[in-house]
Specification:
Length: about 325
């Protein structure tokens, strides 16, 4: 099967490319001339050049593929405009190009985010039936992209995946917390609860959804099925990196100020930024993946203990820690 992957040079995208190759798919990666290819270099892939923010560059790039996995986008940006340009307009350009140039596609899979739905307001996991209420510019841009994708469901077979926080080798977001805990610092702003998913499980679930007819036209949450407190996550990371961190309590009211400092120091690539703080101020980010289990047979294989250890080991081997 011929497959096109956008966002293939990123954390999740590069793992998806590797798994597709293991399963015998023919893989083409949509990249820009300036893309850093370090995670896909040397793989048995083809490259197609294009930019999701420029529709004309996509018209020839999307033809002839059985499956398209759309992972390209921004998770961090300096302003709301950049989020909507990359995540919303970029998705609109891509799916319109597919509708015009590849109407016989078997499946278009859009990787969205739990941020598109927004937080829960207690420990009851959000399900696909719950009305989305995103709280960040990132989440709003992903939700609007979902709506654009769904407008094409009568002409393109499609599926949308909403993962929670994803971690694993090559991830640079959770890496920030690994670094802090390695230094013996546990920043805490009260009790919080999260769903998590190891990258290999997300990749497997994404491919399963593309191959299953039951997933056509639907949205699915994928998670490892557990709910973790921030204390449990910090304990797992601390154990993996071999530290006993000191807890530093940050009052929620000063979190935006803290984010502003982090953004000035780290730029748009820093996970500690004003938009992310809008999410972190909410204590419940949990989702219900039972629909994926029941309809698609999705069963996660990696729990937090193994996943965090494997991630920490990778960081050490590659001298990130």
């Amino acid at each position: 099967m011929k497959t096109l992957v956008t966002g293939a040079t990123g954390f999740i995208g590069s793992h998806l490319v590797e798994e597709l190759l293991r399963k015998g798919y023919s893989v083409t990666c949509l990249v820009r001339k300036t893309s850093d290819l370090q995670w896909i270099e040397g793989l048995d892939i083809s490259l197609a050049y294009g930019d999701c923010t420029e529709k004309e560059s996509l018209l020839n790039a999307v033809t002839g593929f059985d499956y398209i996995f759309h992972l390209a986008g921004l998770t961090k940006a300096r302003n709301e405009k950049d989020f909507f340009l990359a995540n919303t307009s970029g998705t609109e350009n891509l799916i319109q190009a597919v509708a015009e140039k590849n109407p016989n596609i078997k499946r278009f899979v859009y990787l969205s985010s739990l941020a598109a739905a927004g937080p829960c307001y207690d420990r009851t996991p959000v399900s696909e039936a719950v009305e989305p209420r995103p709280v960040s510019a990132y989440g709003k841009s992903k939700l609007e992209a979902e709506r654009i994708v769904l407008r094409h469901k009568d002409v393109i077979p499609l599926t949308i995946i909403r993962p929670p926080a994803v971690y694993g080798p090559r991830d640079k977001d959770m890496y920030t917390f690994f670094k802090m805990l390695k230094k013996g610092i546990f920043l805490c702003w009260g009790k919080c609860y999260y769903s998590l998913l190891y990258v290999d499980d997300l990749v497997r679930g994404t491919i399963i959804s593309s191959e299953n007819n039951a997933a056509e036209g639907k949205i699915y949450y994928l998670s490892d099925g557990k709910i973790y407190s921030n204390d449990e996550i910090a304990e797992a990371i601390s154990s993996a990196v071999g530290t006993k961190p000191v807890r530093l309590r940050i009052p929620r009211v000063i979190m935006p100020l803290f984010a502003g400092i982090g953004q000035r120091l780290g730029g748009k690539r820093n996970i500690i930024n004003k938009d992310k703080i809008k999410e972190l101020q909410h204590p419940y980010w949990v989702c219900d993946s039972s629909k994926a289990r029941e309809e698609l047979g999705f069963v996660p294989k990696v729990g937090i203990k193994e996943g965090i250890k494997w991630t920490a080991d990778w960081y050490r081997i590659h001298q990130w820690l």
